[in-house]
Amino acid sequence: MRAHQWRMKVAQATHGVGGLKYDASKRARPPELNVFVALLLIVAAFEILGRLIIGDSFLFNTRANVDTLFNVPRLTIIILQVSTVGIIAIGVTQVIISGGIDLSSGSVVGATAMIAMSFAQVSMVNGNPNPKAIFPELGWLDLPVIVPILVGVGCGLFAGLINGLLIAYTRIPPFIATLGMMVSARGLSRWWSNGNPISFPTESFAGISNGDFLGWLSFGLFSWKGVNPVLIFISLALLFHLVLTYTRYGKHCYAIGSNEEAARISGVKVEHHKVLVYSIAAILASVAALVVSSKNLTAQAGMGVMYELDAIAMTVIGGVSLSGGRGSIIGTVIGALIFGVIISGFTFLKLDAYYQEMVKGVIIVGAVVLDQWRQRRQAIGG
Questions:
Q1: Residue 232's closest CA among 72, 81, 84?
Q2: CA angle 148, 190, 308 (to 5 degrees)
Q3: Alpha-carbon torsion 133, 138, 141, 143, what sign?
Q4: I need a surface site. Which of 7, 125, 243, 327 has the fewest CB within 10 A?
Q5: CATH number 1.10.3470 is the correct assignment for the domain at 30-370
Q6: Backbone phi and psi for residue 334, each to the nearest 5 degrees, phi listed first
Q7: Sign of CA dihedral 190, 192, 196, 201
């Protein structure tokens, strides 16, 4: 009781330079809360439109022969649709918080998928030699699944190191450095197999996305095979949320994004950190490549087109500031869910996919405008 009275007196007392007073009513709500409210409003809008336009529910189950409150298949599809790009968005979030930008992630997905799949092929298809084999003369067929995984992660690490080294030590703007990587990696993906798709992976490689990680422990939304991308996305999101929140790496990301020179004066090895951030982002793009290629059982040079823009959009919608220094993995995850709800909602209302692209563009611009307005408001102490 006494401690409570003491805290009340401190809150009411004037202290500090100029006799400033603490005002609890001016405490800002977490930006993730605002994004979550926006998600709920979008879901409510599709629910109302569904009832009015097609006489069906977007969120709830309306089938008499299914004993569930919510439409579980739709909820699962929503998460599945954004899980691959969501993995990329986790890395892009760290890049943007650090004050950078990464336009190469989609092309890294394409190049990594092509190279990794060529190390994941089977030797025989229906009793005949694999007609799509890339390295039959070298005998690089029927390899353990760890081989294409390591090759894929290595491709991502290589691309990330190039991006980071160029940005950190040549002072090339991140936009230009990653734009160059975007073009180069896309060209590599086309050159690797002369533009031909690479197919027929081993069963263990296909199991990366189409297997069942949880086995008999699966339940709820994860009660059937094929949801491994969701589990990978959630696991990585949780891991990097903890990393950004509680480790020195995370604190340095925010410090560099807020004020690079101040961070350098404070002893942060800015150049080393930038190389690390871009390497992690590219590795996460390579993980997304492994997920999408194993899910589709094939790799094509065009894989990952526009993924980088969707990933950036998810982060911006999730409250990550393009100016750097502010944002969170939780906000990015909610931003990804908003993307999934919009895509599923337009399909539910039987509207053309063209409208999805237009609406996504409007949402991206609106999110950036809102972020700029919020920064100006904070700058004037509003």
A1: 84
A2: 75
A3: negative
A4: 7
A5: yes
A6: -65, -40
A7: negative
Amino acid making up residue 197: P
Please name the residue that has the structure tokens 């160059």: 180
Sign of CA dihedral 341, 347, 352, 354: positive
Residues whose CB falls within 8 Å of the CB of residue 164, separated by 6 or more in sequence, listed in order: 274, 275, 276, 277, 278, 279
CB 229 within 8 A of CB 209: yes
Q: What angle do CA 274, 277, 283 make, to 5 degrees?
A: 140
* pLDDT over 60 (residue 298): yes
Tokens 């992976």 correspond to: 201
End-to-end Cα distance, the chain: 34
- Interval 145-157: pLDDT, tens: 999 999 999 999 9
User: What's the rounded Cα separation, in Å, for the pair 99 and 252?
Assistant: 11
How crowded is residue 297: how many other Cβ atoms within 10 Å of its Cβ? Answer: 14
Burial of 75 (0-12, 13-18, 19+ CB in 10 A): middle
Q: Is 155 exposed, middle or buried (0-12, 13-18, 19+ CB in 10 A)?
A: buried
Please write the tens of the pLDDT for every residue from 34-47.
Answer: 889 989 999 999 99
Q: Are 179 and 106 in contact (CB under 8 A)?
A: no
pLDDT in tens, 76-110: 888 888 999 999 999 999 999 999 999 999 999 99
Q: Take residue 23 and report the two structure tokens written for it.
A: 């005002």
Sorted by sequence, the CB contacts under 8 Å of residue 68 that are 6+ apart come out as 61
Segment 306-358, tens digit of pLDDT = 999 999 989 998 989 888 888 999 999 999 999 889 888 888 888 877 777 78
Q: For residue 297, which of 167, 206, 161, 222 has the smallest C-alpha distance?
A: 206
Rounded CA-CA distance 81/339 in Å is: 9
Amino acid (one-letter) located at 61? N
CB 305 within 8 A of CB 326: no
Max Cα-Cα span within the chain: 84
CA–CA gap between residue 273 and residue 264 (Å, rounded): 11
pTM: 0.87
